[in-house]
Write the structure tokens for this entry.
Amino acid sequence: MLDSFKQAYMPETTFPDRTIDTDKCSRCGRCYETCPAGGFSWTKGEVPVPIGFGGFKQACINCENCMAVCPSGAIALSGSLTIHKGRYKTYLSGHMQPPNPFNQEHPDYAVIEKELTEVERMIFTRRSNRLFKDKAVSKDMIHRVLEAGRFAPSAGNGQPYQFIVITRQAVINELESRSMTVLKLLKNTYLNRNGRKKLWKSAFFSASSYLMVNKFDPRPMTAMEKADRNMGRIFFNAPCVILILKQKHGISNPDLDAGICTQNMVLAAHAMGLGTCIVSLPMVPLSYPIMAGFRKKIGIKHPFEAVTSIAIGHPKGKIDGIVARDTPPVTWIE
Ligand SMILES: Cc1cc2nc3c(=O)[nH]c(=O)nc-3n(C[C@H](O)[C@H](O)[C@H](O)COP(=O)(O)O)c2cc1C
């Protein structure tokens, strides 16, 4: 019990080692810009430096997107993110592997790729895109993406979703700035600037983790810090944001339906050459009473509630690509 209390806030974590080959590095800063955790410091013309902050030894969530966007293959990650104890303990094997659909001993994606279907290729190469061109997405393309969502499977064919497509920058800005007011308060309380875990923070975040375990995982705190450093740009200057709403009274588990619908849209968008990032950071603030006026303004009405959103646009340079992922346990019952 005491251990669980100690480990609910800033739990003991092993982070992957990130190294940058200074000979290969083109000093473009794309890894710095794309990292969802604000995990690099960078001065123009210099080699980026992997960093941690606020009590995180390294600000890294192990997504390998820095490697995917690097034009010169200069970044290497070894090890995996492991939270050792407590409420946020990870249950992964720590064994990171590239896609291995044919269960080979030494999978080589370049060879495997030729045997794959277009859908598999899209699934394996899709990366969350946080670098967007300053270019609008055409209404036709957005419509195609929405159609992919509309044809997702749903429990009892309930189709418990609605979509809000925002391309008016002023509204995206307002959603960002209103959400950041709440998110900044949370992450400024959470982050541990002087390197010591304060007892009251352990008590507060431990209690919070019992009330809302999913909301107090340490990892999203790094995304909030990144957004804060980036002038509150939660949607990375994407020209379009699609909100996915669920009908709260929907059959069975409307959150699951909304998630499946979201992924349909994301894969369709990547197949069309667009880039996407699923963004949930603003969803908790958006549900708060202080945002009732904004919800009304953008058309969120009971019994609907925003589940997540997709930032969508034209990717700036190559972003999609192959990375390694952990290998969760699989039980075969034959
Ligand atoms: C439900 C959900 C919510 C997410 N919210 C955010 C977010 O708020 N901000 C962000 O930068 N990325 C967000 N992501 C993207 C994840 O960080 C990303 O999927 C993960 O790091 C794996 O990287 P990949 O998508 O490139 O494979 C979210 C993803 C999902 C599925």
